[in-house]
Amino acid sequence: MTISGKPKRHSLLSGTTVDRPGHAATIMVGALFLLAFQDSVVKLTSSELSLWQFQVIRAGLNVILLLLLTRVIWGASCPPPKRFWAVALRSLFLVGAMVFYFGGIPFLDLANIAAGLYVFPLFVAVLSALLLGERVGPRRVLAILIGFAGTLLILKPGTDAFQLVGLMPVGAGLCYAGTILTTRRLCRDESPITLAYGVAFTFFTAGALGVVVFSFLLVPSQASQWPYLLTGWHAIDFWVVALIGLCSLINLTANIALSRAYQSAEASWLAPFDYSYIVFATFWGYVFWSHVPDVLTLAGMAMIAGAGLFVAWRERVANQRATGETRT
After folding, report:
1. What does pTM read for this prediction?
2. Which sequence spans correspond to the domains of the chain?
3. What are the backbone angles phi and psi of residue 152, rounded to the nearest 5°?
């Protein structure tokens, strides 16, 4: 309670205009550890149900948890979005990232999926130049090329090891880059709870559409080869529902934390900590399936991480210079 007797407004119900880089880095690493564990659970359940069914159940549980959190625990309502179109755009980018990322989970090792996803800082640099008019110097261009070369080492095009599905995590990286840009540029003053509601409702809608389309309207000839992506509703056991419930709790917690992290610090500052996800995904892949990346994959990971970190560092230097010039 405050001195005036009015209940104190919870900090997660509002946006932020204050940078707290240390706090942002801490909550980001914790959130990524949880998300890597969640993704290993998703891979465990991928043979039991479809992606769309998983999203309907998880997103529905997310909405219920959000309602309990805001109305029952905090005694408040979700703040309306300040820019509905920006929150919707961010949510759609996350849905795209989800489809590409989870769509490849039944076929790829977690380490390979994580490495493909983490070309997103390079996409952020490219999109910032193309869409926002930011200058990308020759050293950053070289870093971007090195990062994509690392992606090729992992995908191994032209060899028997190449799988077309290996491109899906790269598509997820492109969509996630859009999420980063919209979070920082358009949604900084939005409540993390509002952003979480937006993602949950959008995921539920996308999942429900997928279930309807692939259960009643369309049965693709490739459904037997791609059951996770191209089928709808399955009869599932209780243990699967329980694991989805665990994923819901982890997903909601981690996404609220990541929203606050990207609101509280520059993406260039957070980039080194963001790459901890690759380490965590490799760790859980080994714990659950004894997956150990080969030499080329490890080299590709190192190239992607090194290129992403260099791009982030150059962006930070450029931002500091711009701030100094503005002050003078």
Report:
1. 0.78
2. 21-320
3. -65, -35
